[in-house]
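Technical appendix A lists one of the benchmark inputs used to test multi-chain prediction within the project. The record comprises two sequence entries:
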Amino acid sequence: MNTNNLNYLVNSLYLIKPELVIAAVIVLLVLVDLIWIKNKTALPYIAILGLLTAGYFLIDQFGTNTFAFATNNSAGMLIVDPFGTFFKLLIVFASILVVLFSMLSREVDNGLERHGEYYTLMFGMIIGMMFMVSASDLIVIYLAMELVSLPSYILAGFTKNSIRNSEASMKYLIYGGTSSGIMLFGISIIYGITGSTNLYEINSLIQAPQMQNLTFLLAGILIFVGIGYKISAAPFHFWTPDVYEGAPIPITAYLSIASKAAGFALLIRFIKVTFIQSIDPNGFWHLLGIIDWKSFIIIISILSMTLGNFAALWQTNVKRLLAYSSIAHAGYMLLGLAVMSNEGITAILIYFMAYAIMNLGAFFVVMLIANKIGSEELDDYKGIGYSAPFLGVSLAIFLVSLTGLPPTAGFVGKLYLFIALVDAKMIAVAVIALLNTVVSLYYYIKILKCMFLDKSEKEVPAFSASYPALVLVFLLAAPVIIFGLYFTPLVDIAKSSITLLGL
Amino acid sequence: MQYFPILSFITFLPILGMVIILFIPKKLDVVIKSLTLVITSVQVVAAVVILHSYNYALGGINDPATFQFMEKFRWIDINGFSWIGKIKVDYFMGIDGLSVPLVLLTAIVTFVATLSSWTINKSVKGYFALFLLLDTGMMGVFVSLDFFLFYVFWELMLLPMYFLIGIWGGPRREYAAIKFFLYTLLGSVFMLLVMIGLYFSSTEVLADGTKAFTFNMLSMMNHQNFTMTGILSPLNPHNLRLVAYIALFIGFAIKIPMFPFHTWLPDAHVEAPTAISVILAGVLLKMGTYGILRICYPVFPEITRQLVWYIALFGMINIIYGALCAMAQKEIKKLIANSSISHMGFVLLGMASLNSMGMSGAVLQMFNHGTITAMLFLCVGVIYDRAHTRGIEEFGGLATQMPIYTGFTTLAFFGAIGLPGLSGFISESFIFLGAFAFPTIRVIAVISTLGMLLGAGYMLWTMQRVYLGTLKEKWASLKDLTFREYAMLVPLSIIIIFIGVYPSPILSLMNSSVNAMVKFMADAQVIYGSFGH
């Protein structure tokens, strides 16, 4: 290795400072866990401190637009661009909140002696997700996805002592293993055809018409299966309800936001970088004709939201209901990709910011309620609006936002999505999505109905959560309303984050 | 304009009240009720102030220069890249002759409904907080001139209404509440789509001379603002204006409610507590017809002219069908709910006539129906509070036991029938005069007159069964009106009689705007006809 290459490597390290911080925190967590075996209180604080540091470096490098770890050819293994940095920030934001949730969660607290593992595994996921959103090489993509998956299988079964917990972990493992195998198969086919694993190189190679054959289509779809499983799009969603229901609530919240965000970032990057031909001045993409991604994603998206929404109608467990709702939301967001335009991506980013806040908020309140009443069954929610009014009203705000009614952040997400759809003249799809919104109202309202309209058979004593928890709920609920009324910041952030390297 | 932003004041005052109520301890029921009463009274005062300084000569409708009490400033301002354009949403409020009567109506009906809510004992704090939130939503709809703002207020009403019916309603309240919510949301999602479509079809010129897409309703009414390629632009030969019109119309029609979207109304009315029924009939139904007049008509004038016969037809169906349904009811509240369907049909018929006579009749009918039906529901509430039943057959001879109450009820009943000398007569006769004058819908108008006959039929028949005849023994202990009930019924009675005897003040209030609308619709035929498709 000559000095030039070494210099380049060192320079690349500067570009992955956030990832390095996370990696250092993993080591620190393990050490602290080993040294202070009895006292675990320091761990979450170290975690939050580490995440804040990583967040600082991310904000610092926002706007950077370059390759890291380039080989002798021009393209590199990783990309640092505003699009990736946006998703990394989102992931860090969600991680901070989930660490806070974990500190307040009774389920996680019961496994006190294993807190070291808990946070270490979580940071393993974080670093995997960060690589997922910035990978530009199929090998890195695969490794990053495995790095996310393996800790999440364990975390889904973290509490160990309940059967549904182990079931969740087991199901997740089997589904995850299968889909990552399928994805790897797709990757190997692409490598076989093009002789490259780098997305940019593959893109320039497949511009040649003789490359555009049926095998490539198969490979593309196989890779989509792997990513589709991560974002829980139908028909790759079967694990979602079971895992969401079985996993500890902080982990469920984490899977529904962070790991979904990473999956979406990867999907967008994979499709745009690999298949792009040109972008017209209006921001619409012209993709290579190998795979009709537009129709394909429209079908997947309609399938996801319809299935998610209709299945959610019959659920009696709030966590499971939110799992189906998250499948439906994946469907809505896929529509933004189906538009195949920069405007559609803007809509997805806006939607994700809104979705992160409202979904984390909803899961958090569900967790706080479960801490007290020890159940997530809808029947046990009866009368909670009166025994815990603050939590009830907050959950109402989050659910209304998930439905997409103004004046909430969820409405802004939907609004931009429909603006993108109408602008692309995809009216029929927009109508289907809107009708889905009406369906979704029914099950979100069902929770509100239980909390406020129904009377419990057994007397529910008034309860509340600890003050830090209430403050956190308030800090999540307030932006839902504020961004609903004044969404300029959301849109501005999204607009400055849609730049993908080279495109 | 420099003066006090009275429209924002009248709209957001209730929200302020709601916030204060949230901080009042639960136990202080009376304080919460009194505060709500104070706020709604201030609203009435503000409405009277608006009325006092309102200039009757200005028309409004599509001309920004002739709207009054305008408040306009940038709310959302996003400067985009070339590919997304700019997103500008204005906080744009203003009123003209169409909205002034409804602002007044909202203030009065809310005030009366507050008095009627005095009997609420269950979670008083929550009730009045939601009540005031609902109030803001209603007022906001009538004063916004930006489609986005309009939509936000429109949706803001749904949730409070759901809870108000769902928590404080009758035995089947959950069913009624969710049905109301789903129906209205179904309507409003279509409205959202049309709103976005219109946004991409119309532009306004900004201060720096550049053009930007706009949610401004008044810009959407000016054909010069349409883009060449917008999907809802008349200049685009492949436009979807007809489809969009129907979608938007259905969105509003659900609220009216127009046949066949009316089935939520009887359920909602029967289950809702009295005060909410009063609001629902008095104000919420008007939003449907107001939306059609404010948005459908001037934004799609050429389609309106094309479909005017169908609007009249559905008006007729509403009139006859609602009346027949009312006749078959065994419960007073259900009867009045169905009579509402019938009476809102008159509004549709009047709107379809497209002339000053019929349109004034329609707007006046909105106001009159608001006051008369509010009074009818209050009367039902009075008897329900005492007897805890609303079955028509269970009563009889109440006139001997509660003579004053019967007097007020008779007044409301006769107002609903359209007895000369009461307000209902003026608006209904205007509607028929207008509809007869328009040859296209003359036949429909003739058939619709049957509705008045049927109306008299079911009203008088109910009158006879409930109030006349011999008093049943179990009702011998019923007390006549209390002071609070006087306070609810007297103002409404005065309005009903006053307009019936001397309608010119309220007619001249809306006259310029109605004329402006009629002229606009007539001119539009020429302009839009010239686009040639």
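The radius of gyration of chain A is 22 Å. The beta strands of chain A are 66-70, 76-80, 276-279, 285-287. Comparable benchmark entries are summarised in Table A2.
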